[in-house]
TrEMBL record, chains A, B:
Family assignment from sequence similarity: Belongs to the HAD-like hydrolase superfamily. S-2-haloalkanoic acid dehalogenase family.
InterPro entries tied to this protein: 2-HAD, HAD-like_sf, HAD-SF_hydro_IA, HAD_sf, PGP-like_dom2, S-2-haloacid_dehalogenase
Name of the protein: (S)-2-haloacid dehalogenase
Purpose: Catalyzes the hydrolytic dehalogenation of small (S)-2-haloalkanoic acids to yield the corresponding (R)-2-hydroxyalkanoic acids.
Organism of provenance: Hydrogenophaga aromaticivorans
Amino acid sequence: MPIQAVVFDAYGTLFDVYSIGALAERLYPGQGSAISTLWRDKQIEYTRLISLSDPDGEHGSRHYRPFWDLTRQALRYALQRLGLPLSDAHEEALMAQYAQLTAFPENHGVLQTLRGRGMTTAILSNGNPEMLASAVQSAGMADLLDHVISVDGVRQFKTMPVAYGEVARHIVAEKSDVLFVSSNAWDVLGATWFGFTTLWINRQGLPFETIGRRPDHTGSDLRAVLDVLGLVA
Amino acid sequence: MPIQAVVFDAYGTLFDVYSIGALAERLYPGQGSAISTLWRDKQIEYTRLISLSDPDGEHGSRHYRPFWDLTRQALRYALQRLGLPLSDAHEEALMAQYAQLTAFPENHGVLQTLRGRGMTTAILSNGNPEMLASAVQSAGMADLLDHVISVDGVRQFKTMPVAYGEVARHIVAEKSDVLFVSSNAWDVLGATWFGFTTLWINRQGLPFETIGRRPDHTGSDLRAVLDVLGLVA
């Protein structure tokens, strides 16, 4: 078993970004699902536009803004797009919830098992360090992760190779000896192209992307990590 | 009036990509709108993932594939995602329609006026040359455009600067003396960052993106080009 480290995406993989739909629904009845979907899509789109538009900036993209700021701007866009009133109080409530997203239920057990077997565990996320620290803390995962790695150090976002490359600054291992785990098909696609061994957590039973290489492994929840590694919980 | 050339985005700006929804609706009753929206979103997403994942390839992205191929792969994804049956016949019908999209009704008149005043006109598109030639031909615009410029030459997609930079290989003008016109807010965002003078054709009354600089001009259909240039039709 050559895998030496398991690196997780954060938002969507360890933390349930759509769990925020319930609060959105209370604040904007009938629109919770639309808000959370549009908010998420726009948040990701902004990371891409920023990296694409200055891919070879010497210190990252000159358009770089921390993911927390982009998350806020994406929320504002989503509300405007849906014709819903902006409100400082609602915005603060939703952003506060975003700082403390629900973790998927099986995640703690999986991380505990990995740690118990001496496996190196880490997050690699588009999130900036402050928001990641908050999320990890409130999910009670601080003791279960060796490294919480942010793309903020390179001021470019996934799926740029320089973003995945941040893992190597913290974990000494061949790319193919790193198991990269994400629920986001696009992230798995980029990580596979980058050279990581990949596991797609396909919680919603979606088709995989129709370009690129298939991920090395696919599972329906985070317990698939243990299957891939031949571990039992 | 310093503007020396007007450069148009193609898909969504000159050609109505959602016009294909009617055929999609006939082939998949009740799903036409969902297909055309998901198809378009995925098509654009694939261009971004390809460029992001190899931004500094010597000859463009090593993952580059012509836009026509990505359009087909995006269609397949959309149908799978919606749980609809793939069918060679339906796929060919939809792709054939995509090769001959409807032009927005006011576009001919605007292009004719521009040409009549001696303005240089061009397309800059993610589309590959073959599909652009087909679209331009079937829309009857071949005599109305000085240049049909594809990003295929650099094997990277908008909004990468190298893609917008292709304009300079065909048109000698300062960036700010080029009026870049697009219905796609993300394209206008990228073009504004690149340095073009920009006009966003906001046909659907959408909010602009909440990051980046506002476009220099905004209009509700292509006739806004004439307003910006101080021309009357």
